[in-house]
Amino acid sequence: MTDQVLTVTLTKYIETRIFGDRPHIRGRRIPVSFIAYAARNENMSPDELAQEFALSVSEVLAALLYYKEHVEEIDAQEDAERAAYEENRSLHGTS
Fold first, then answer.
1. pLDDT at 94
2. What pTM does this model have?
3. I need a surface site. Which of 5, 68, 69, 88 has the fewest CB within 10 A?
4. For the chain, what is the mean pLDDT?
5. Rounded distance between C-alpha atoms, residue 16 and residue 18, angstroms
6. What is the pLDDT of residue 51?
7. What is the three-class DSSP state of 24?
8. What gap in Å lies between CA 91 and CA 95, rounded to an integer?
9. Buried b (16+ CB within 10 A) or exposed e, 57-78
């Protein structure tokens, strides 16, 4: 018996053409990180996330799986976004 690796493509639900390289829900401006962080920080279920972000449960599950498979890359992108925001805010104020 050979070990087989199941590969799932998430391109039906996830793309990176908006926001530079930040993955987001296809055709929407909702980053995968927003969904993953809400699931983790707010302890939201896929059904709750779908309702919160006006997505299908399939889109939410795809985002959560994509995040799990790319956690280091996505977290690094989000850290860079936060740093750029903080730098911009310190240069230009909070208005």
1. 66
2. 0.83
3. 5
4. 90
5. 6
6. 98
7. strand
8. 11
9. eebbbbbbbbbeebeeebeebb
